Structure to design on (264 residues):
């Protein structure tokens, strides 16, 4: 489903965030990208759909080479890929239902489908079903900015479900949440992926979460893949070695990109 070949990303200041990464992910596989601050995991994830343009190498998703796609082809690809960000990208001043309805815009971009009150009955009913799956249907009529962080991330998952993706890219999806809310969101995300047979790539820096949820763990350090294997076969010392170099450059770049490019 996803093939990454010799991928590299060098920022204008010379920082090499991703350094010749090779990665192959099968359809229906769930993979955790694990690493310390500055390991390159978020940059790698964003390069997969060209939210960040890589410097070298290539990415193939479902057989399509992402770097060669024109604007129409890239839009079509992104309709197949649902993204969950650390910074929860809801439209605060509109209702929860309207936020979820907008997950359907890739299929039907007509103006009437922008809001829950104007969408078709079929779209509204499907949006409510998505909210039911993540257990926040009772908040459908509330403004998104009236919800807690955990509730907002659940709404983001409902919007992702509305998109009907084949692949989910989750970038530190619970980093901004307290431990209890984070576990609840992770449980929901993994359940959705299992029930719908989706392919998942999830970046994490929390070792305990990676150990609990990861089936396959790909460990990055300084932009390079240092380990790749099944969770049960990787010892603690090998994982601990990923955290020996905690450089901040990549996260600083990621924060800038997250602020400026998440709407790309």
């Amino acid at each position: 489903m996803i093939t990454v070949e010799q991928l590299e990303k060098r920022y204008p200041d010379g920082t090499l965030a991703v350094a010749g990464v090779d990665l192959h992910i099968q359809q229906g596989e769930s993979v955790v990208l694990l690493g310390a601050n500055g390991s390159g995991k978020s940059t790698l994830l964003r390069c997969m759909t060209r939210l960040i343009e890589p410097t070298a190498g290539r990415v193939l998703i479902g057989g399509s080479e992402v770097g060669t796609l024109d604007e129409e082809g890239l839009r079509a690809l992104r309709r197949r890929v649902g993204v969950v960000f650390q910074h929860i990208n809801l439209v605060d001043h509109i209702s929860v239902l309207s936020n979820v309805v907008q997950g359907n815009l890739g299929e039907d971009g007509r103006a009437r489908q922008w809001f829950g009150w104007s969408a078709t009955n079929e779209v509204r009913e499907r949006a409510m079903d998505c909210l039911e799956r993540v257990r926040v249907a009772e908040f459908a009529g509330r403004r998104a900015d009236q919800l807690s962080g955990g509730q907002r991330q659940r709404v983001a998952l409902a919007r992702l479900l509305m998109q009907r993706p084949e692949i989910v890219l989750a970038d530190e999806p619970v980093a901004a949440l307290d431990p209890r809310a984070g576990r609840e969101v992770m449980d929901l995300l993994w359940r959705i992926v299992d029930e719908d047979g989706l392919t998942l790539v999830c970046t994490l820096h929390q070792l305990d979460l990676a150990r609990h949820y990861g089936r396959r763990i790909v460990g990055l350090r300084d932009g390079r893949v240092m380990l790749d294997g099944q969770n049960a076969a990787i010892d603690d010392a090998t994982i601990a070695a990923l955290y020996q170099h905690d450089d901040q450059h990549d996260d600083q770049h990621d924060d800038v990109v997250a602020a400026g490019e998440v709407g790309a």
About this structure: DSSP finds nine helices and ten strands in the chain. The first helix runs from residue 41 to 47.
